[in-house]
């Protein structure tokens, strides 16, 4: 009965599903950190290729995550436009050369350096976000918290993540109900109303939602305290699979994803692989 | 009062008191007066007791005292001595008490912390750092005891209220507790599920020897299975503590805002009240005298013709034809929530929509209001097909009041809240003022008109949401579970108010699984099961029809059993007679309602508590 989540676990077991959450988390963290350090084109391309392979073996379909992918794509385009609008000369600044491809108005000339820079930024999206999405789509939610805990995140923080996941569907449903009830009273939040009216009406929806959520938190924390949460220094997990060979391999890959760009920093003599040099 | 010296069930350590309260007085920090006064209570190992009392009687606070939430979480001044499972809950950490005393809170969904059933049951084990490898076995054992072992992998949003409650029970059973505390376990359940819960609690008591304390005001449902004692509370004191038969026969329940079992009330109406020796707690077991049976028969026969005439529906204001609705996507995976529902509701009628949770009652209302799209059929209002109308336009004609008032109130003052919808519809100030004044009177909110919303009790908030909807002057008013969780006195007060609204010409549809409500306040009910309309009849006919009640997960009331025991061929005649007598009693000015207007104490209405802080 619950509506299909925009972003959530996809129950269609593939190879990635059999890897423990912990191992996948290490891989994702590796990819994120690696992409943060590395601006090297070759590395980012390799990371993108890895993402494509991972999608392939995950049996997660693009359609499963269509909504999120569209959002990301829109952001990517917007981000690129904004970079060009506000810093059209940043590429030149970075690489010290200037090859004008198209003579634009004012300072908005299209240079090869700028395009190269923006390509790198775009590749970062392509390298990082699919792996994060894949992690979420192939890891059963109960495993999130235990995986976070196993890589060193304090269990209270880890459990907070799990609890947030637990309540997302409830809050979604509640939002829908409240919003419909307010619409029935004439408080329109759809596109038919003007923006200021919509904002005001949306407040009338969010306020009860917020108060309801606070009450819910009160209940949950009472229930958790009654069942002994937060008393001990540690915690064990019901949903914790032992690590196996493939997990070790995946984790090694994750570590490599961080080491490679670190090495490239030295090789390239900076964060960028300057194709315009020499 | 008396505490029984001899107990039915012998037990090795029968005399060991597992709960012992001596002269306990407790005052919440934010309150000016104590919520509990001089409480003395002993519960021995293996006993099963029910604590009943109106809202604000202190029964929930008493429960919090036993599990340590008072004073660990809800602070205040505590005097006297409290001992539970050999320790003072106030002096030891909360979790130490929780090892012995398991609490099942009222809202089964709020306390579900795991992402799956198994994980939720394991929660306490995880906190105790039990190795992962040992958990599945213990989880399975607890789940089996609570009857939920077949759903271990399910997510909370895929479970019904009754199933969630079973998960909560398993989640405390996993600790092998000696005592189980239930805080209004029936409040969120439909009648059949409620009976199953009562049966489960009884099984845990009998088979595992767990000491049980149930706080509840739906006494008749609790008495579906035996309890050893009933503790009756009023105004923070224990006013009676005795075996159920004595309490039920004593007449004290009515005086303290608790609805007595219907068969007992009927016998009283017929002029043949019961005595404790007749074991009146359960309609199946009561030992009726010849005089009583004769009295009931005469009483029923004296009624003459009571609403037995075929009903002629007044001119249709709301017509539904072949209505269907599939929820959750049209790609064949959706759930058929409604199928082929056709009916006609006349202008000015008050109709109950009965059925279990998930039977399609709420979906029907949501489709009428445009919250969900109909996948088949039409809805007509005064002959006009409303399919093209958006939600807002439907809202002008059909008002929908959600169960939880918190979901509807967004302004901080009463008048503002009422004006919100009017302003959105672009009415001028004079008209807004006129309508606000008028609904303030209708809903009895005039005395509170300048109050902030946060200072209102639950029942008053509920009235406010109705006022805000009524201000739009809809022709049809739909209410979802209007009286859920309210005690008898509040319930009566509230339903009388709705009856007055209905008398003013508004058509009222009541979605409920409370059969008493349907019986006492409606002349017609629609019974739904699995998305279909199962029956459309007088409530007395429905609730004495074993076939319909079984198919709709309703239960026959004690009146049905009484009719059978008295050899009355048509049980619905007895029900009609009783309802007529009950209504007559209600319309008398000295009707034995109230303690209701006193406003509820904080533990039952968190909002009022919040306002006081």
From TrEMBL, chain B:
The record, for PROSITE patterns, names:
ABC_TRANSPORTER_1, ABC_TRANSPORTER_2
List the GO molecular function terms. ATP binding; ATP hydrolysis activity; ATPase-coupled transmembrane transporter activity
The text of the family note is: Belongs to the ABC transporter superfamily.
Listed SUPFAM superfamilies: P-loop containing nucleoside triphosphate hydrolases
Query: Which GO CC annotations does the UniProt entry carry?
Result: ATP-binding cassette (ABC) transporter complex
Q: Which organism is it from?
A: Brachybacterium nesterenkovii
Q: Name one Pfam family in it.
A: DUF3744
Q: What does the record give as the function of this protein?
A: Probably part of an ABC transporter complex. Responsible for energy coupling to the transport system.
Q: Which UniProt keywords apply?
A: ATP-binding, Nucleotide-binding, Repeat, Transport
Q: What is this protein called?
A: Duplicated ATPase component MtsB of energizing module of methionine-regulated ECF transporter
NCBIfam families hit by this protein: PRK13648.1
ABC transporter domain location: 19-260, 318-555
In residue numbers, the region (Disordered) covers: 584-613
């Amino acid at each position: 009965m619950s509506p299909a989540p925009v972003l959530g676990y996809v129950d269609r077991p593939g190879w990635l599903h059999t890897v423990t959450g912990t191992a996948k988390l290490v891989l994702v963290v590796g990819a994120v950190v690696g992409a943060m350090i590395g601006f090297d084109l070759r590395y980012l391309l390799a990371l993108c290729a890895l993402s494509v392979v991972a999608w392939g073996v995950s049996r997660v379909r693009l359609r499963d995550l269509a909504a999120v992918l569209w959002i990301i794509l829109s952001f990517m385009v917007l981000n690129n436009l904004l970079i060009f609008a506000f810093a059209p000369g940043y590429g030149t600044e970075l690489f010290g050369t200037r090859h004008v491809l198209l003579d634009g108005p004012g300072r908005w000339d299209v240079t090869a350096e700028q395009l190269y820079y923006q390509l790198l930024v775009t590749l970062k999206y392509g390298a990082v976000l699919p792996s994060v999405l894949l992690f979420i789509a192939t890891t059963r939610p109960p495993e999130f918290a235990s995986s976070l805990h196993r890589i060193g995140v304090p269990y209270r923080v880890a459990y907070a993540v799990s609890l947030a996941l637990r309540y997302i569907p409830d809050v979604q449903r509640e939002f829908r109900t409240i919003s419909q009830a307010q619409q029935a009273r004439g408080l329109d939040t759809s596109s038919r109303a003007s923006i200021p009216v919509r904002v005001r009406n949306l407040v009338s929806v969010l306020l009860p939602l917020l108060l309801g959520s606070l009450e819910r938190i009160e209940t949950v924390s009472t229930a958790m305290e009654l069942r002994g949460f937060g008393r001990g220094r540690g915690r064990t997990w019901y949903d914790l699979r032992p690590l196996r060979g493939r997990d070790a391999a995946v984790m090694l890959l994750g570590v490599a994803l961080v080491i490679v760009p670190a090495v490239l920093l030295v090789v390239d003599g900076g964060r960028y692989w300057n194709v315009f040099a020499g | 009062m008396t505490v029984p010296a001899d107990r039915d069930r012998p037990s090795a350590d029968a005399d060991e008191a597992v709960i012992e309260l001596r002269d306990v007085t407790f005052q919440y920090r934010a309150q000016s007066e104590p919520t509990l006064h001089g409480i003395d209570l002993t519960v021995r190992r293996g006993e099963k007791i029910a604590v009943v009392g109106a809202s604000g009687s202190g029964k929930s606070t008493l429960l919090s005292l036993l599990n340590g939430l008072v004073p660990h979480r809800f602070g205040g001044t505590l005097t006297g001595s409290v001992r539970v499972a050999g320790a003072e809950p106030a002096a030891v950490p909360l979790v130490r008490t929780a090892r012995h005393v398991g609490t099942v809170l009222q809202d089964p969904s709020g306390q579900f912390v795991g992402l799956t059933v198994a994980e939720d049951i394991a929660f306490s084990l995880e906190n105790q750092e039990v190795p992962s490898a040992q958990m599945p076995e213990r989880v399975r054992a607890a789940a089996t005891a609570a009857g939920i072992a077949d759903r271990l992998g399910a997510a909370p949003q895929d479970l019904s209220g009754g199933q969630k409650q079973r998960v909560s029970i398993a989640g405390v059973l996993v600790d092998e507790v000696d005592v189980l505390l239930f805080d209004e376990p029936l409040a969120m359940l439909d009648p059949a599920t409620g009976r199953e819960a009562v049966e489960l609690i009884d099984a845990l008591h009998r088979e595992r020897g767990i000491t049980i304390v149930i706080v509840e005001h739906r006494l008749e449902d609790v008495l579906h299975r035996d309890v050893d004692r009933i503790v009756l509370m009023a105004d923070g004191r224990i006013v009676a503590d005795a075996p159920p038969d004595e309490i039920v026969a004593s007449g004290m329940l009515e005086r303290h805002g608790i609805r007595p079992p219907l068969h007992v009330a009927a016998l009283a109406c017929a002029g043949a009240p019961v005595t404790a020796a007749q074991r009146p707690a359960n309609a199946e077991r009561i030992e009726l005298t010849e005089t009583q049976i004769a009295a009931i028969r005469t009483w029923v026969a004296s009624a003459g013709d009571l609403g037995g005439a075929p009903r002629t529906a007044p001119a249709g204001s709301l017509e539904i034809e072949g209505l269907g609705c599939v929820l959750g996507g049209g790609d064949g995976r959706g759930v058929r929530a409604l199928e082929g529902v056709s009916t006609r509701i006349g202008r000015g009628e008050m109709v109950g929509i009965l059925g279990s949770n998930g039977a399609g009652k709420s979906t029907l209302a949501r489709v009428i209001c445009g919250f969900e799209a109909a996948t088949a059929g039409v809805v007509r209002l005064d002959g006009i097909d409303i399919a093209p109308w958006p939600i807002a336009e439907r809202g002008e004609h059909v008002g929908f009041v959600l169960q939880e008032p918190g979901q509807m109130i967004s302004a901080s003052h009463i008048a503002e809240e009422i004006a919100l919808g009017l302003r959105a519809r672009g009415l001028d100030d004079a008209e807004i003022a006129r309508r606000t004044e008028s609904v303030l009177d209708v809903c009895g909110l005039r005395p509170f008109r300048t109050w902030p919303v946060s200072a209102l009790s639950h029942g008053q908030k509920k009235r406010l949401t109705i006022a805000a909807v009524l201000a739009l002057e809809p022709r049809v008013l739909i209410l979802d579970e209007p009286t859920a969780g309210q005690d008898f006195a509040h319930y009566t007060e509230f339903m009388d108010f709705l009856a007055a609204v209905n008398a003013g010409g508004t058509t009222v549809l009541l979605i409920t699984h409370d059969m008493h409500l349907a019986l006492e306040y409606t002349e017609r009910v629609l019974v739904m099961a699995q998305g279909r309309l199962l029956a459309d009849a007088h409530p007395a006919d429905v609730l004495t029809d074993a076939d319909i009640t079984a198919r709709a997960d309703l239960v026959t009331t004690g009146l049905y059993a009484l009719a059978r025991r008295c050899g009355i061929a048509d049980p619905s005649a007895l029900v009609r007679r009783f309802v007529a007598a009950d209504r007559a009693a209600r319309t008398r000015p000295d009707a034995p309602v109230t303690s209701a207007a006193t406003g509820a104490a904080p533990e039952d209405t968190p909002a009022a508590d919040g306002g006081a802080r």
